[in-house]
Amino acid sequence: MTVATDSPAALDGERRSTGAPVVFDNLTRRFGTTTALDRLSLDIAPGELVALLGPSGCGKTTALRVLAGFDRPDVGRVLVDGQDVSHVPAQRRDMGMVFQSYSLFPNMNARDNVAFGLQIRHQRAAQRRAKAAELLDLVGLADHVTKYPHQLSGGQQQRVALARALAIEPRVLLLDEPLSALDAKVRAELRDQIRALQQRLAITTVFVTHDQEEAMSMADRVCVMFQGRVEQVATPSVLYSQPATPFVGQFVGVSSRVPVTRRGDRVEVLGREVPIRGDLAAVPVGELEALLRPEDLDVVINPNGLGVVTHRSFLGATTRVGVGVAGTNLRADVRSSEAQDLEVGTRVDVSVNARDVLVATPRPAT
Amino acid sequence: MASLEFGTLVADPSTVDQPFESDAPANRGRRPVRWGRGVILFLAAVYFIVPFYAAMAFSLQKPTGGFSLSPLSQIASAPGFLSALWLSTQLAVITMVGVMLLMVPTVIYVHLRMPRFRRVMEVITILPIIIPPIAYATGILESAPAWLRSSQYLLAIVYVILAMPYVYRSLDSGLGALDLKTLVEASRSLGSGWISTIWRVLVPNLRSALMSASVLTIALVFGEFTIANVDNWTTIPVWIYLAPTDNPRVNTLVAMIALLATCVVLTLIVSLDRSQSRNSRSSS
Question: CB-based contacts of A343: which residues, under 8 Å, 6+ apart?
Answer without folding.
Answer: A309
